Amino acid sequence: MDQLYGNAFVPYRRTGPGLTADGQPKHDLSQFNQAHFNNWFDIVSYANQRYIVVQIPLLDLRHNRNWIVERSGDITRGWDLKYDFYQDANNINGVDIEHGLQWFVPTNSAFEYQKALITKVIDTPGRLLNIVWKVASEPKHYPDGDSEVWLAQLADFITRYEKSLGLTPHLVETRDIPRHKDTPGHWLDPPAHVHEDLVARFSDDTPLISDDDCYIETPSADYRRYKYWTSLTAGAHVSLFHYLLYDTAVLLSSHAAAGMRYLGHLHRFVRTQRVKLADMVPAEELFSRGRALPQPGEGYVIYLPAGGATRVSGLPRHFIAIWFNPREGTVSRAAVCAQFIAADRTDWVLHIRRVATRAKAGTAVNRVGQGPATTIEP
Q1: Roughly how many angstroms between the first and final C-alpha of the chain, as a whole number?
Q2: Domain boundary among 253, 272, 291
Q3: Residue 321 sits in which domain range?
Q4: How far apart are CA 240 and CA 237, in angstroms?
């Protein structure tokens, strides 16, 4: 809710009378600040042009139980429940949340204002398709109450309102997809566990979205890349998260910048190679080695974390095979005899795609990067 920065776009107009805890005019919860919603529309539109889906937390449960301090350069800011819009000291509407438990009680007076805020978001950026809604960040069970009822009621409210506008409803976490902390592979597990945990959870009708939040330590760029590709080949995807991305120094650091670049390589691979992810199901038994996502007889994506060789069963009669370098985003021709062999012991992605008729070897040029692809009859 942009509570950290006094010059940020907040969703409500600051009309007063009286001052909030941050020393500025109180909020009028019945009047929205259109600039806030236009700003988010611009952000989501920008992402949409680049084929990026944005997960948007509509409300925030983290701040109502923690004193959170953030530092950027010489500036230090703290935030918690005392700055909340729904505290009596911060609004002119008589809404008063005194402690965290009240914040997610549907019978509390804040509930109707929360729903009004959600409808305003749906009215503006919510009309774009590239969104996954998250009712609230950091939902937590409290000793004296449970946020699950509140989350479920608001999730259903979101979908009803979208349908009333004639919109195609978006996915809503946690009703339609597991919350990120409940998605296998979320934590900084030993790398070998990520793929297996995700495959165990795979379901044809439940999207799996993990992310790179909540690690015990800041993950390296190499670990991020490994997680991106092991998630993809397990039938899942990853949302890029970094808590301090507002800090330019962090944004340009090697682990953040390289991590974003590696995810961009994965995205470009899927799009330019025309990988039909919706038709693919994890099937390790078709491959002698590697993490794999096949559509048998049609297409195969195999990730080899340490290079080496792999044999592939059930190949189509005619196919194109390429090696994709996930570190550089480049493509090279895949030569094969009895097996496919990566160039070295770094990680590589093998993509095999069926073609209708046999083409002359070396004539097909791949769109992603350098070098030709090849058509081979096994």
Answers
A1: 57
A2: 272
A3: 281-376
A4: 10
Task: State residue 364's pLDDT score.
Answer: 38
Domain check: are 15 and 162 in the same one? Answer: yes
Q: For residue 348, give Cα distances in angstroms to 5, 174, 240, 331.
A: 43, 34, 21, 10
Q: Is the same domain home to 134 and 161?
A: yes
Same domain, 30 and 158: yes
Mark which of 214, 249, 272 sits at the end of a domain.
272
- Encode pLDDT of 299-330 as tens digits: 999 999 999 999 998 888 889 899 999 999 99
The answer to whether the CB of 199 falls within 8 A of the CB of 234 is: yes
Report DSSP state, residue 91: B
C-alpha 30/C-alpha 93 separation (Å) is 8
Q: How far apart are alpha carbons 22 and 102 in whole angstroms?
A: 22
- pLDDT tens digit string along 63-86? 776 566 666 566 666 667 888 889
Residue with tokens 């992310």: 211
Domain for residue 159, yes or no? yes
Give the chain's residues under pLDDT 50. 1-2, 4-6, 216, 360-378
